[in-house]
C-alpha cells in the first residue's frame, strides 16, 4: 500500500487528528460514516468524538466554523472545481482540505501533514490544476484565498501587484 493516497495522505491526516494535532473539526469535517469508513480502510481505529483529547476545542471549532459558513462553502466549491474525481474519496478530500483551510496556521500543519512537500504532493494528486496554477509556490492557504479573491471575494489582496505589496512575505515566505 506504500505510495498510495491512503498511506500518503489519509493516514497522516487521521493520525494527527486523533492526536489533537490538526485544526480539523469533528469527523475531519466529513460525515461520521465516511470518517469511520476511511479510518478503518487505512488500518486505524476510529475514535468517538467525545473520546478525543481535543474534545473541548472541537466544540469551539464547530462554533467558529459555523460562523464562517460562506467562506467554508466557497473554499469547498473552489477545491471541488479542481478536483480529480478519479482519486479515492475525492469529494471528502475537498471537504477536509476546506475545513483545514479555516485553521490559523500553515495549511500543511492545520491538515496534519508531516511536512509541507507532502501537502504539495496532495495538491498534485487530488487538485492537479490548482497545483499547476501555484507555479510561484505561494503559501498554500494564501494561494487558495487569492483564488477566491480573484473570483470576486475580498479575502487577501490589498495591493494591485505582488511586487509592491506589504504582505509579500506572508504570501510567498517559506512555510515552516
Ligand atoms: S503578495 Fe499581496 S498582492 Fe500578492 S497575493 Fe499576496 S496579498 Fe495579494
TrEMBL record:
Q: Which InterPro entries match?
A: NifQ
Pfam families named in the record:
NifQ
The identity of this protein, by name, is Nitrogen fixation protein NifQ
Identify the species of origin: Vibrio tritonius
Amino acid at each position: 500500500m506504500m505510495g498510495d493516497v491512503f498511506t500518503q495522505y489519509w493516514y497522516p491526516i487521521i493520525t494527527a487528528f486523533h492526536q489533537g494535532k490538526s485544526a480539523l473539526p469533528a469527523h475531519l469535517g466529513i460525515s461520521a460514516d465516511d470518517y469511520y469508513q476511511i479510518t478503518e480502510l487505512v488500518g486505524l481505529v476510529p475514535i468517538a468524538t467525545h473520546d478525543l483529547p481535543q474534545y473541548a476545542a472541537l466544540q469551539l471549532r464547530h462554533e467558529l466554523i459555523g460562523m464562517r459558513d460562506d467562506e467554508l462553502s466557497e473554499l469547498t466549491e473552489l477545491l471541488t472545481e479542481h478536483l480529480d474525481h478519479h482519486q479515492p474519496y475525492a469529494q471528502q478530500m475537498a471537504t477536509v482540505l476546506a475545513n483545514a483551510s479555516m485553521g490559523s496556521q500553515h495549511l500543511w500543519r492545520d491538515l496534519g501533514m508531516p511536512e509541507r512537500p507532502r501537502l504539495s504532493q496532495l495538491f498534485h494528486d487530488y487538485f492537479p490544476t490548482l497545483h499547476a496554477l501555484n507555479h510561484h509556490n505561494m503559501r498554500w492557504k494564501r494561494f487558495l484565498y487569492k483564488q477566491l479573491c480573484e473570483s470576486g471575494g475580498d479575502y487577501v489582496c490589498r495591493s494591485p501587484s505582488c511586487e509592491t505589496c506589504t504582505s509579500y512575505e506572508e504570501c510567498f515566505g517559506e512555510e515552516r
